[in-house]
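Handover notes (outgoing to incoming on-call)

Open items:
1. Cleavage and polyadenylation specificity factor subunit 1-like: sequence verified, structure written out, both below. Nothing else pending on this one.
2. Nothing else urgent.
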Amino acid sequence: RIAVRKDTCSMVSVSLNIQQRVYPVIWSVSNLPFDCIQALPVRKPLGGTLILTNNALIYLNQSIPPYGVSLNSIADASTSF
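Cleavage and polyadenylation specificity factor subunit 1-like structure tokens:
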């Protein structure tokens, strides 16, 4: 099935304004690898989110393009990210 659909996950950052009931999307990224496991917050001053997958680490931040590092040779065959 990987040959048909590799990158099926998405990440969306939403601001929650409970008082005014407004929930704007701050930023979003689609076409992340199918095997995304966990999203970890990155503390200030760097900020952003670290996405853990079985085969890669991906750093997401609204200020810069997404950056990923493969952890093994399987990542090359399992994602186009």
